Amino acid sequence: ERELEAIQFLLHKSIPGHEETFYEVSETEIQPGDIVLFPIENLQSLYCLFKHAAVYVGDGEVIHFQGLKDKSSTGWVSKEGFHALKKARGKFQIWRKRGGIKVNEFCARVRQAMNNVAYYNLGTKHCIHFALWLLGLEDF
């Protein structure tokens, strides 16, 4: 079931039923645990298939996971200002998990992520997998 939720989110709007797990909210409604999706690099379509994901943690900050530019398997987790990321990446969408999240578990995963090494794989372990893990929807 978790894998199906991840696939639905990864391909959002491409597979009927994605609305069963997530729904879109406006920036004025953003709250901890909301996933912010940005088109990858210079792809102009807001609804392009490939996205970069960050998760809003509160107090104007997001957390996200990226691969290193040197193509090594090591990635890095970082927290930064939501407004700075919006300015750098442009268009975005905000998605919220239906039924909400368990805030204590979410905060514990954020702390864990900030203090551990993570390995990046474009196919199996990337920013969207990381975001879904923070919400308790996928292993990472």
Question: pLDDT under 50 segments (min length 5)?
Answer: none
- What fraction of the residues are assigned to beta strands by DSSP? 25-35%
What is the CATH architecture assignment? Answer: Alpha-Beta Complex
CATH topology: the name is endopeptidase fold (from Nostoc punctiforme)
Number of helices: 4
Q: Please provide the count of β strands.
A: 7
Class by SSE composition: alpha+beta
InterPro entries: LRAT_dom, Papain-like_cys_pep_sf
Domain LRAT: 31-134
Protein name: LRAT domain-containing protein
Pfam family, one: LRAT
Characteristics:
single chain, 140 residues, alpha+beta, endopeptidase fold (from Nostoc punctiforme), 7-stranded antiparallel β-sheet, 4 helices
